[in-house]
Fold:
Amino acid sequence: MNLVESFRIAIRALGANKVRSALTMLGVIIGVAAVILLVSIGTGVQAQITGQISGLGSNLLFVLPGKMEGGGSGGGTASAKKFTLDDVAYLQTRLGSENLVIPELAGAADLRVHNLTMNGQIAASNENVADAAVGTIQSGRWYARGEVVGASRVVVIGSNVRDTLFPGQDPLGSTLDVNGQSFRVIGLLEKKGGGIGGSQDNIVAMPITTAQTLLSTRDISELLVRVKDPANVDSVKALTQIALRPRFSDQFSVFTQAQTLSLLGTILGTLTAMLAGLASISLLVGGIGIMNIMLVSVSERTREIGIRKAVGARTYDILSQFVIEAIVLSVLGGTVGILVGAGGSWALSAFVATKVTFWAVALAFLFSAAVGVFFGVYPAWRASRLDPITALRYE
Amino acid sequence: MTDPATGINADTAESRKVSDCSEIVLEARDVTKSYVLDEVVVDALRSVNLEVCRGEMLAIMGPSGSGKSTLMHIVGLLDHPTTGVVTIDGEDVSHMAPNALAAVRNKRIGFVFQSFNLLARTSAQTNVELPLVYAGVSGGERSRLARLALEQVGLGERLGHMPNQLSGGQQQRVAIARALVTKPSIVLADEPTGNLDSQSGVEVMKILQDLNSQGITVVLVTHDARVARHAERVVHIADGRVVLNERVECRIIAGDGQGAAAELETAAATLSVNSVVHA
Structure:
């Protein structure tokens, strides 16, 4: 009997036991799809966020309140002394005009236009906002120095804010209520896509002075320093540390973009590992499902092997049939699982960044296939070595 | 009729004399079979000798637990003896490798079991084709031979039926078609009517007798004296030994017009004869 014949027998046996075949495949599908989907979320979010940080440019310094140098764990930013606009002016003087010091302040915003409302995020800065990479102007303009000094109630809105509050309208020149105060819309940002902790397109950007009044604070969240020449990043970092030490002692932190990326990489890597852990539980559950189905059918399959041997099947005939059956189920289930996982990942990309990775596909597929083949073939191998009558009488 | 005195101590010479053989197709010499069950050694067969002549129809009869099925499984190469020799067509098969045994089962022996042993959820046609698949017969030829075999047992209209769509008698006929599709020299039937109603049983016995009349050697195992009387010769087994070897007088020909009641009467007569023999 040749391989083609073994293949035909295996396919016929699978067809004769549709429920068992389907359940085995389901185990493979669940395992493979879950791993692909969860790992794709972890990888996708990681790639998107590091991409955003990288997109800011390599000549950026992040200055944060609180001491976080030791690997980012201890940082008591909540209790640490915050920067004020006075610190911004002071640092700008010390660093020279070729390096831009950009303050940032974030806060929650209740947005309303007539009877339409939504939750947004305040992203406030000074006249150097264009260098802070809050977004790119699609129409209208950024606020100018005069509007920062005068704490004008003007906003530049994200694309979601436009879509929600000004459906089908040009928002420029219209008014918008932020936390109960009336603002004039002077600019619209290009769409950026999702991120962790809310969409980047839900922001309302306004002058930092206006935001401080609105949020009743004199603090600012963090400082960015845009260094003119990327080669000087390290010296400007040192200069910043020297300048701020008299005012803040060591209760502040300065990160270069590379440091920020590696810090985020650690955090997001943990996230991905956690998702992969969840996925491997699914893989295990799928594997146990496969194992159950295969073991439950051992007695029936052993009798089948007895019948086949009684009418003249050799050990090789039996084994090739069962190996082919197991491989066909694993490959079919694995392929469907990959399609389901990739499809689910594509569907989820509307809400969260996803990225299907090769290693997740390969790992999930190989594991499920190995479980399927082992539990499909091992009992058959044992049964094929029995006297036919022993196999026929198997209970 | 066998002399009671020699019948009880039936030996090889005696069975030869009784069967009046021209050629021995199947032979068991000094076959024993022991099992270990819960650390107790059970002797299922104790030094059994059996010769089956080409073209004869032989019944192996005995009460349940007598070892008759074990003997049939051993001469049919489904099981191996603890000691002793089995020859088929004069060839010693006791020490053959598993794959060589598979080839012998495939080409020279056909089996019919009490519980049919058809592949579930698999059509009658495919079930009958199974031995041909392992014999390496090509697809078209396989399909033709399987159809012929099913027509021979009167199931030409039910090729595509699954076992669970067939009655017990029909399933057993599918099993017989599977046994004869490779044109074996021997058909071994283990309680072929055990799970059947009497009407289906008569049909199955008729098919086995027809096969025998076409020259195929038929060995059938039964505990039922009436079924045994369909054979030409009956070997009685008790406690793992051959105790009696008799030629059947007034053989029952299945479906020749005698009603089941008539057959039962004959069976009762046989039983009374046997009890005389044993006494």
